Amino acid sequence: MSELQTPERRSFPSTWQALTLADISEKITDGSHQSPRPQSVGKFMCSVKDMTYDRFDLSGSKLISVDDYELLVRQGCQPKKGDILISKDGANCLDLIFVYDQDEELVLLSSIAIVRLLPGYIPKYVSYFLLSPDCQYVMRNNYVSGSAIPRVVLKDFRKVPILVPPPAEQASIASTLSSFDDKINLLQRQNKTLEAMSEALFRHRCLESISDSWEERPLSSIARFLNGLACQKYPPGNDLEKLPVLKIRELSSGISENSDWATDQVKPDYIVEAGDVIFAWSASLMVKIWDGERCVLNQHLFKVTSDEFPKWFYLLWCKHHLAEFISISSSHATTMGHIKRSDLDAAIVLIPTAGELKELSKQMEPLLDKQIANAKQIKSLEKLRDTLLPKLMSGEARVSF
Predict the structure, then answer these.
(1) Is residue 6 very low, low, confident or very high in pLDDT (cuts 50, 70, 90)?
(2) Using one digit for the tens of pLDDT, what is the confidence trace for 200-219?
(3) Model confidence over 251-260: pLDDT tens digits?
(4) Angstrom distance (rounded) from CA 364 to CA 358
(5) Superfamily (CATH) of domain 17-165
(6) Fold match, 17-165 / 215-351
(7) Does 153 have pLDDT greater than 50?
């Protein structure tokens, strides 16, 4: 990555300015360095763990008393709409940056930086610039400290170099990139709705409205649970015949530059394609439809397939038993919890008659197919956005304004 340049050294349009975050900010601060006692009711106090890519998920947020909340508001720990919020401490250091626009009353802990811009600077533009590869490179290589818990000292945010176009161009760049994120957000919300519909229909038809004619079988008998390879034993022989390795980390966060590689000359069964059902049976147990690029299945993951039953059926039965499997895994006195094949044997599945399964599939398959299609479109939009982002932020690509 040595070819990356800082914004001060890169050539840029003559109408742009090379400034620092301090130059364009009214205020750069963070949340509370003290954590009040939690309450069962009260006001929200948020930390990095509550951040998503564009907002706070308050479903698991800590509640504090109204008195503590009002004290922290007076201390400047409450974000205002238009503030840029940055994850500055922890595993997600600098990963999460967004412009705050929520209506809920909340205050922040010190793991989140608050940047309030001066008039004339567009928060959306600046947040995208902070997420751009060049700016991330500068921040991570100059300002991140701590090996166990990465963090950025608040004063170092003031030094971050920013390329600033005229306001109209800032707004146009932000609008162009936001159009991608808005579409991605719409598709993600649609998929959550489709998933909820599928699970509600499954619960009603396969758990609550069963008949005596339905057969009981173990989960292990309705699908093939193929454990992955020890991929370190299958290194790539060259740069052409290789694929990224799908581990638990990638199942959660996607393929990245930190992912391992393996040869693509493995048995086809161990190749994972978008739309495959993947079951993490060790450590962080989860069941997901893979929505990333072609890759090689690593150990500790099952690729779940069936020649007898449709994908929606074995996917939802795996999800149904997941809470039970997590409980089994956490009860194991090991450093890394897991489930065994015998746990799959013990998990019971209710099998409808052939006619009922066919009728159910007419309802369930379109819901799952739409989720998979949306996931593929999301990945395509993310790739386009991520390709365009550095070009717009350097002035290499220009937009009308």
Answers:
(1) low
(2) 999 999 999 888 899 999 99
(3) 988 898 889 9
(4) 10
(5) DNA methylase specificity domains (3.90.220.20)
(6) yes
(7) yes
Q: How many Å from the N-terminal Cα to the C-terminal Cα in the chain?
A: 32
Q: How far apart are alpha carbons 349 and 373 in whole angstroms? A: 28
Pick the CATH number of 215-351 from 3.40.50.261, 3.90.220.20, 3.40.630.10, 3.40.50.300: 3.90.220.20
Measured CA to CA, the distance from residue 223 to residue 321 in angstroms comes to 14
Between 1 and 57, residue with greater pLDDT: 57
CA distance 82 to 115: 9
Residue 212, number of CB atoms within 10 A of its CB: 4
Q: Which residues contact 80 (CB under 8 A, 6 or more apart)?
A: 100, 116
Tokens of 275: 């739309």
Mean pLDDT of 285-307: 96
* Half-sphere exposure for 184 (CA within 13 Å, toward CB): 16
Q: What is the CA radius of gyration of the chain?
A: 24
Domain ranges of the chain: 17-165, 215-351
CA dist 35 and 45 (Å) reads 9
Which of 258-261's residues contact partners 24+ apart within 8 Å by CB, and which partners?
260/231, 260/232, 261/235, 261/236
Q: For 302, phi and psi rounded to 5 degrees?
A: -100, 135
Find where tokens 């040869």 sit: 263
106-108 and 151-152 strand pairing: unpaired
